[in-house]
Design brief:
Elements lengths: L19 E2 L23 E5 L5 E3 L1 H5 L3 E9 L4 E12 H8 L7 E6 L4 E5 H4 L5 E6 L2 E2 L9 E3 L12 E7 L6 H4 L18
Parallel strand pairs: 1-5, 2-11
Antiparallel strand pairs: 2-3, 4-5, 5-8, 6-7, 6-11, 8-9, 8-10
The protein binds the ligand Nc1nc2c(c(=O)[nH]1)N[C@H]1C(S)=C(S)[C@@H](COP(=O)(O)O)O[C@H]1N2 and molybdenum atom.
Length: 199
């Protein structure tokens, strides 16, 4: 007799292997939560490296760029997944088009506060689904979740989604970021369970 799926079995087309769905929004990072002046005059986003026109954006300049809303799932390497996150922000592609990425650029190194970094192939970073998000589920990001701006790359483990991003560096060679130097995978595909260096 068939009684349907047991309740503990999750939708394997939606949930990558060995992930558990949570309805909370865990906070995970290394280092301290940064705080900024109310007018964000002490904040900027720099885009540099292998680009034709390096640029530094104020938060208001970024808000002037068309903002878009996209819903995606979070998969953290520590095993939790959070479904249906509505992110609002600026398309990564728009920024890359503005600075003009040079053909030699193949990877991106994201720089966040306190020298935290993470590496991503340019092809992945430039996907239509990649966002520089300022809001989550209709509210501005909280300080813990990356205020004022975080990266969201839904198809990779969430550690690639840098909170408190301050610079985007276009580079030729792949180089490990903070967690990648500490044993995490260089790419981080949750569907292939690329959690650690050796996976
Ligand atoms: N700047 C920075 N961004 C970071 C991290 C970090 O340590 N520093 N940790 C990553 C990890 S491991 C995860 S799972 C997510 C967690 O995001 P959340 O705290 O909003 O859930 O942020 C990612 N972005
Ligand atoms: Mo994570």
């Amino acid at each position: 007799m068939y009684f349907g799926k047991p309740k503990t079995q999750q939708d394997s087309t939606r949930i990558p292997p060995n992930q558990n769905v949570t309805t909370t929004f865990p906070v995970l990072h290394h280092g301290n939560v940064p705080y900024y002046k109310k007018d964000l005059s002490d904040w900027s986003l720099k885009v540099f490296g292998l680009v034709d026109k390096p640029a530094t954006y104020t938060f208001n300049e970024l808000l002037e760029i068309d903002s878009l809303t996209a819903t995606s799932d979070i998969h953290c390497v520590t095993g939790w997944s959070k479904l249906d996150n509505e992110w609002q922000g600026i398309s990564v592609k728009t920024i890359l088009d503005q600075v003009g990425v040079r053909p030699e650029a193949k990877y991106v190194l994201l720089h966040a506060e306190e020298g935290w970094t993470t590496n991503i192939p340019l092809e992945d970073f430039a996907k239509d689904t990649s966002l520089l998000a300022h809001s989550h589920n209709g509210e501005p990001l909280t300080p813990e979740h990356g205020y004022p701006l975080r990266v969201v790359i839904p198809h990779l483990y969430f550690w690639k989604s840098a909170k408190w991003v301050r610079a985007i560096e276009l580079v030729k060679e792949d180089q490990p970021g903070f967690w990648e130097k500490n044993g995490y995978h260089m790419y981080g595909d949750p569907w292939k369970e690329q959690r650690f260096t050796w996976d």
